[in-house]
Protein backbone atom coordinates (compact mmCIF):
# COMPACT_ATOMS: atom_id res chain seq x y z
CA UNK A 1 0.00 0.00 0.00
CA UNK A 2 1.28 3.42 -0.96
CA UNK A 3 2.10 5.56 2.04
CA UNK A 4 0.59 9.04 2.07
CA UNK A 5 3.31 11.70 2.46
CA UNK A 6 3.36 13.60 5.72
CA UNK A 7 2.88 16.88 3.88
CA UNK A 8 -0.37 15.67 2.34
CA UNK A 9 -1.71 14.67 5.75
CA UNK A 10 -0.88 18.14 7.05
CA UNK A 11 -2.64 19.73 4.09
CA UNK A 12 -5.71 17.49 4.58
CA UNK A 13 -5.81 18.31 8.29
CA UNK A 14 -5.48 22.04 7.63
CA UNK A 15 -8.37 21.88 5.17
CA UNK A 16 -10.67 19.95 7.51
CA UNK A 17 -9.52 21.12 10.93
CA UNK A 18 -12.66 23.18 11.54
CA UNK A 19 -14.94 20.28 10.63
CA UNK A 20 -13.01 17.88 12.86
CA UNK A 21 -13.13 20.27 15.82
CA UNK A 22 -16.87 20.83 15.36
CA UNK A 23 -17.49 17.09 15.11
CA UNK A 24 -15.42 16.44 18.23
CA UNK A 25 -17.24 19.17 20.15
CA UNK A 26 -20.60 17.73 19.13
CA UNK A 27 -19.61 14.17 20.10
CA UNK A 28 -18.40 15.33 23.53
CA UNK A 29 -21.49 17.44 24.21
CA UNK A 30 -23.92 14.79 22.96
CA UNK A 31 -22.17 12.09 25.01
CA UNK A 32 -22.60 14.22 28.13
CA UNK A 33 -26.24 14.79 27.18
CA UNK A 34 -27.20 11.13 26.68
CA UNK A 35 -25.15 10.04 29.70
CA UNK A 36 -27.27 12.26 31.91
CA UNK A 37 -30.60 11.78 30.13
CA UNK A 38 -33.16 9.80 32.18
CA UNK A 39 -33.79 7.45 29.23
CA UNK A 40 -30.12 7.08 28.35
CA UNK A 41 -28.83 6.45 24.84
CA UNK A 42 -31.93 5.21 23.02
CA UNK A 43 -33.27 5.47 19.48
CA UNK A 44 -36.07 7.76 20.67
CA UNK A 45 -33.67 10.16 22.39
CA UNK A 46 -31.49 10.33 19.27
CA UNK A 47 -34.55 10.83 17.06
CA UNK A 48 -35.85 13.72 19.15
CA UNK A 49 -32.45 15.42 19.25
CA UNK A 50 -31.99 14.89 15.52
CA UNK A 51 -35.36 16.36 14.62
CA UNK A 52 -34.73 19.47 16.70
CA UNK A 53 -31.23 19.98 15.30
CA UNK A 54 -32.15 19.34 11.65
CA UNK A 55 -33.84 22.73 11.25
CA UNK A 56 -30.74 24.67 12.26
CA UNK A 57 -28.52 22.30 10.26
CA UNK A 58 -30.37 23.07 7.01
CA UNK A 59 -30.22 26.82 7.63
CA UNK A 60 -26.53 26.58 8.57
CA UNK A 61 -25.88 24.74 5.33
CA UNK A 62 -27.68 27.55 3.50
CA UNK A 63 -25.53 30.17 5.22
CA UNK A 64 -22.37 28.23 4.42
CA UNK A 65 -22.94 28.40 0.65
CA UNK A 66 -22.91 32.20 0.88
CA UNK A 67 -20.21 32.68 3.52
CA UNK A 68 -17.55 30.83 1.51
CA UNK A 69 -17.94 33.55 -1.14
CA UNK A 70 -17.18 36.15 1.59
CA UNK A 71 -20.84 37.15 1.65
CA UNK A 72 -23.58 36.78 4.20
CA UNK A 73 -27.29 36.07 3.93
CA UNK A 74 -29.46 37.61 6.64
CA UNK A 75 -32.63 36.40 4.93
CA UNK A 76 -32.21 32.63 5.42
CA UNK A 77 -34.38 32.63 8.55
CA UNK A 78 -37.20 34.51 6.83
CA UNK A 79 -37.04 32.23 3.78
CA UNK A 80 -37.50 29.35 6.24
CA UNK A 81 -40.52 31.10 7.77
CA UNK A 82 -42.01 31.90 4.34
CA UNK A 83 -41.54 28.28 3.26
CA UNK A 84 -43.17 27.09 6.47
CA UNK A 85 -46.24 29.28 5.89
CA UNK A 86 -46.47 28.26 2.23
CA UNK A 87 -46.10 24.56 3.07
CA UNK A 88 -48.93 24.80 5.60
CA UNK A 89 -51.15 25.84 2.69
CA UNK A 90 -49.91 23.62 -0.14
CA UNK A 91 -48.44 20.39 1.29
CA UNK A 92 -51.84 18.82 1.92
CA UNK A 93 -54.39 16.67 0.13
CA UNK A 94 -53.76 13.74 -2.18
CA UNK A 95 -50.26 12.38 -2.82
CA UNK A 96 -50.16 14.27 -6.13
CA UNK A 97 -51.27 17.54 -4.54
CA UNK A 98 -48.75 17.04 -1.75
CA UNK A 99 -45.93 16.43 -4.24
CA UNK A 100 -46.87 19.55 -6.19
CA UNK A 101 -46.94 21.50 -2.93
CA UNK A 102 -43.46 20.31 -1.93
CA UNK A 103 -42.08 21.28 -5.33
CA UNK A 104 -43.75 24.69 -5.11
CA UNK A 105 -42.21 25.33 -1.68
CA UNK A 106 -38.73 24.32 -2.85
CA UNK A 107 -39.02 26.45 -5.99
CA UNK A 108 -40.13 29.40 -3.87
CA UNK A 109 -37.05 29.09 -1.69
CA UNK A 110 -34.88 28.78 -4.79
CA UNK A 111 -36.51 31.91 -6.27
CA UNK A 112 -35.87 33.86 -3.06
CA UNK A 113 -32.20 32.92 -3.17
CA UNK A 114 -31.99 33.79 -6.86
CA UNK A 115 -33.50 37.20 -6.13
CA UNK A 116 -30.82 37.84 -3.52
CA UNK A 117 -28.11 36.79 -5.96
CA UNK A 118 -29.43 38.94 -8.81
CA UNK A 119 -29.64 42.07 -6.66
CA UNK A 120 -26.19 41.57 -5.12
CA UNK A 121 -24.38 40.61 -8.32
CA UNK A 122 -26.01 42.82 -10.92
CA UNK A 123 -27.25 45.56 -8.60
CA UNK A 124 -23.81 45.64 -6.98
CA UNK A 125 -25.26 46.12 -3.51
CA UNK A 126 -23.67 44.87 -0.31
CA UNK A 127 -24.97 41.42 0.72
CA UNK A 128 -25.76 42.51 4.28
CA UNK A 129 -27.88 45.46 3.10
CA UNK A 130 -29.60 43.47 0.37
CA UNK A 131 -30.53 40.51 2.51
CA UNK A 132 -31.81 42.70 5.34
CA UNK A 133 -34.18 44.30 2.82
CA UNK A 134 -35.26 41.04 1.20
CA UNK A 135 -35.77 39.38 4.60
CA UNK A 136 -38.37 42.06 5.36
CA UNK A 137 -40.07 41.31 2.03
CA UNK A 138 -40.07 37.57 2.67
CA UNK A 139 -41.50 38.05 6.14
CA UNK A 140 -44.18 40.32 4.75
CA UNK A 141 -45.18 37.61 2.26
CA UNK A 142 -45.24 35.04 5.07
CA UNK A 143 -47.46 37.31 7.14
CA UNK A 144 -49.73 37.77 4.13
CA UNK A 145 -50.06 34.00 3.78
CA UNK A 146 -50.47 33.34 7.50
CA UNK A 147 -51.72 36.43 9.39
CA UNK A 148 -52.49 34.01 12.23
CA UNK A 149 -50.95 30.59 12.95
CA UNK A 150 -52.77 27.72 11.29
CA UNK A 151 -52.88 25.38 8.36
CA UNK A 152 -51.99 21.73 8.09
CA UNK A 153 -49.62 19.30 6.41
CA UNK A 154 -49.85 15.80 4.95
CA UNK A 155 -49.38 13.79 8.14
CA UNK A 156 -48.21 10.66 6.34
CA UNK A 157 -45.39 12.56 4.66
CA UNK A 158 -44.54 14.45 7.85
CA UNK A 159 -44.36 11.26 9.89
CA UNK A 160 -42.19 9.59 7.25
CA UNK A 161 -39.62 12.39 7.32
CA UNK A 162 -39.50 12.74 11.11
CA UNK A 163 -39.67 9.10 12.19
CA UNK A 164 -36.99 6.39 12.45
CA UNK A 165 -35.85 4.17 9.59
CA UNK A 166 -35.88 0.50 10.63
CA UNK A 167 -36.79 1.80 14.11
CA UNK A 168 -33.18 2.89 14.60
CA UNK A 169 -31.89 5.66 12.32
CA UNK A 170 -33.64 9.08 12.44
CA UNK A 171 -35.06 9.95 9.02
CA UNK A 172 -34.08 13.59 9.48
CA UNK A 173 -30.40 12.61 9.70
CA UNK A 174 -30.73 10.53 6.54
CA UNK A 175 -32.31 13.46 4.68
CA UNK A 176 -29.59 15.78 6.00
CA UNK A 177 -26.85 13.42 4.80
CA UNK A 178 -28.59 12.99 1.44
CA UNK A 179 -28.81 16.76 1.03
CA UNK A 180 -25.07 17.05 1.61
CA UNK A 181 -24.39 14.31 -0.95
CA UNK A 182 -26.77 15.69 -3.57
CA UNK A 183 -26.06 19.41 -3.28
CA UNK A 184 -22.93 20.25 -1.31
CA UNK A 185 -20.42 17.67 -2.53
CA UNK A 186 -21.13 18.14 -6.27
CA UNK A 187 -21.12 21.93 -5.83
CA UNK A 188 -17.89 22.06 -3.84
CA UNK A 189 -16.09 19.91 -6.43
CA UNK A 190 -17.48 21.69 -9.48
CA UNK A 191 -16.05 24.66 -11.36
CA UNK A 192 -18.68 26.88 -9.72
CA UNK A 193 -17.72 25.59 -6.29
CA UNK A 194 -14.03 26.26 -6.85
CA UNK A 195 -14.93 29.72 -8.14
CA UNK A 196 -17.02 30.34 -5.01
CA UNK A 197 -14.03 29.50 -2.81
CA UNK A 198 -11.80 31.64 -5.01
CA UNK A 199 -14.23 34.56 -4.69
CA UNK A 200 -13.97 34.28 -0.93
CA UNK A 201 -10.18 34.10 -0.84
CA UNK A 202 -9.09 36.51 -3.60
CA UNK A 203 -11.96 37.68 -5.78
CA UNK A 204 -9.97 40.08 -7.96
CA UNK A 205 -7.32 37.49 -8.72
CA UNK A 206 -9.99 34.87 -9.45
CA UNK A 207 -11.77 37.26 -11.81
CA UNK A 208 -8.54 38.07 -13.64
CA UNK A 209 -7.94 34.32 -13.98
CA UNK A 210 -11.20 33.97 -15.88
CA UNK A 211 -13.14 32.07 -13.20
CA UNK A 212 -16.96 32.35 -13.35
CA UNK A 213 -17.25 34.46 -10.20
CA UNK A 214 -20.69 35.91 -10.93
CA UNK A 215 -22.21 32.53 -11.76
CA UNK A 216 -20.63 31.00 -8.66
CA UNK A 217 -22.05 33.68 -6.39
CA UNK A 218 -25.46 33.41 -8.02
CA UNK A 219 -25.45 29.63 -7.54
CA UNK A 220 -24.41 30.06 -3.88
CA UNK A 221 -27.31 32.40 -3.09
CA UNK A 222 -29.77 30.27 -5.05
CA UNK A 223 -28.73 27.12 -3.20
CA UNK A 224 -28.93 29.01 0.10
CA UNK A 225 -32.57 29.77 -0.65
CA UNK A 226 -33.23 26.14 -1.54
CA UNK A 227 -31.62 24.84 1.67
CA UNK A 228 -33.67 27.31 3.71
CA UNK A 229 -36.84 26.08 2.00
CA UNK A 230 -35.98 22.50 2.97
CA UNK A 231 -35.65 23.73 6.53
CA UNK A 232 -39.06 25.41 6.21
CA UNK A 233 -40.58 22.13 5.05
CA UNK A 234 -39.13 20.36 8.06
CA UNK A 235 -40.47 23.04 10.36
CA UNK A 236 -43.92 22.30 8.94
CA UNK A 237 -43.38 18.56 9.33
CA UNK A 238 -42.54 19.06 13.02
CA UNK A 239 -45.21 21.58 13.93
CA UNK A 240 -48.05 20.49 11.57
CA UNK A 241 -48.81 24.17 11.12
CA UNK A 242 -47.51 27.45 9.70
CA UNK A 243 -46.70 30.63 11.56
CA UNK A 244 -45.14 33.93 10.48
CA UNK A 245 -42.94 34.17 13.58
CA UNK A 246 -40.62 37.16 13.26
CA UNK A 247 -38.54 36.31 16.34
CA UNK A 248 -38.07 32.72 15.18
CA UNK A 249 -36.86 33.80 11.74
CA UNK A 250 -34.34 36.21 13.23
CA UNK A 251 -33.13 33.57 15.68
CA UNK A 252 -32.50 31.01 12.94
CA UNK A 253 -30.57 33.61 10.94
CA UNK A 254 -28.38 34.49 13.92
CA UNK A 255 -27.86 30.87 14.92
CA UNK A 256 -26.94 29.91 11.33
CA UNK A 257 -24.05 32.37 11.47
CA UNK A 258 -23.01 30.96 14.83
CA UNK A 259 -23.18 27.41 13.46
CA UNK A 260 -20.97 28.10 10.44
CA UNK A 261 -18.38 29.85 12.63
CA UNK A 262 -18.49 26.97 15.09
CA UNK A 263 -18.10 24.57 12.15
CA UNK A 264 -14.84 26.16 11.01
CA UNK A 265 -16.20 28.25 8.13
CA UNK A 266 -14.29 31.52 7.90
CA UNK A 267 -16.47 34.64 7.79
CA UNK A 268 -13.69 36.12 5.63
CA UNK A 269 -14.64 33.56 2.98
CA UNK A 270 -12.79 30.85 1.09
CA UNK A 271 -12.40 28.36 3.95
CA UNK A 272 -14.61 25.67 5.48
CA UNK A 273 -17.53 23.61 4.23
CA UNK A 274 -21.12 22.58 4.78
CA UNK A 275 -20.20 19.39 6.65
CA UNK A 276 -18.50 21.49 9.31
CA UNK A 277 -21.47 23.88 9.36
CA UNK A 278 -23.81 20.94 9.98
CA UNK A 279 -21.69 19.67 12.87
CA UNK A 280 -21.56 23.21 14.18
CA UNK A 281 -25.35 23.36 14.09
CA UNK A 282 -25.65 20.00 15.86
CA UNK A 283 -23.23 21.13 18.58
CA UNK A 284 -24.92 24.51 18.96
CA UNK A 285 -28.34 22.90 19.29
CA UNK A 286 -27.06 20.41 21.87
CA UNK A 287 -26.45 23.30 24.28
CA UNK A 288 -30.20 23.55 24.89
CA UNK A 289 -30.41 19.79 25.45
CA UNK A 290 -27.64 19.96 28.05
CA UNK A 291 -29.51 22.67 29.93
CA UNK A 292 -32.57 20.40 29.91
CA UNK A 293 -30.85 17.33 31.36
CA UNK A 294 -29.09 19.38 34.03
CA UNK A 295 -32.37 21.12 34.87
CA UNK A 296 -30.99 24.63 34.41
CA UNK A 297 -33.11 27.69 33.79
CA UNK A 298 -33.70 28.17 30.01
CA UNK A 299 -32.77 31.81 30.51
CA UNK A 300 -29.17 30.61 30.79
CA UNK A 301 -29.23 29.22 27.24
CA UNK A 302 -28.27 32.48 25.44
CA UNK A 303 -25.35 32.89 27.84
CA UNK A 304 -23.96 29.41 27.15
CA UNK A 305 -24.56 29.79 23.41
CA UNK A 306 -22.72 33.10 23.49
CA UNK A 307 -19.77 31.58 25.36
CA UNK A 308 -19.49 28.70 22.89
CA UNK A 309 -19.72 31.08 19.94
CA UNK A 310 -17.11 33.42 21.44
CA UNK A 311 -14.72 30.52 21.96
CA UNK A 312 -15.24 29.40 18.37
CA UNK A 313 -14.59 32.87 17.00
CA UNK A 314 -11.54 33.24 19.25
CA UNK A 315 -10.01 30.02 17.95
CA UNK A 316 -10.51 31.20 14.37
CA UNK A 317 -9.13 34.65 15.16
CA UNK A 318 -5.99 33.17 16.73
CA UNK A 319 -5.38 31.15 13.60
CA UNK A 320 -5.96 34.21 11.40
CA UNK A 321 -3.68 36.41 13.50
CA UNK A 322 -0.79 33.97 13.13
CA UNK A 323 -0.63 34.20 9.32
CA UNK A 324 1.71 36.79 7.84
CA UNK A 325 0.09 36.81 4.41
CA UNK A 326 -3.63 36.44 3.61
CA UNK A 327 -2.83 33.78 1.00
CA UNK A 328 -1.39 31.53 3.75
CA UNK A 329 -4.86 31.32 5.30
CA UNK A 330 -6.09 29.38 2.26
CA UNK A 331 -3.15 27.02 1.80
TrEMBL record:
Keyword Transmembrane on entry: yes
Alphabetical UniProt keywords: Cell membrane, Membrane, Plasmid, Transmembrane, Transmembrane helix
Localisation per UniProt entry: Cell membrane
UniProt main location, coarse: membrane
InterPro entries: ABC_transp_permease (IPR001851)
CDD domains membership: TM_PBP1_transp_AraH_like
Top-level lineage group: Bacteria
Signal peptide start and end residues: none
Molecular functions per Gene Ontology: transmembrane transporter activity
Keyword Isomerase: no
Membrane topology recorded in Swiss-Prot or TrEMBL: Multi-pass membrane protein
Cellular component aspect of the GO annotation: plasma membrane
Transmembrane segments: 12-33, 53-72, 79-96, 102-121, 128-145, 165-185, 218-240, 252-268, 275-294, 300-321
Protein name per UniProt: ABC transporter permease
Organism: Rhizobium jaguaris
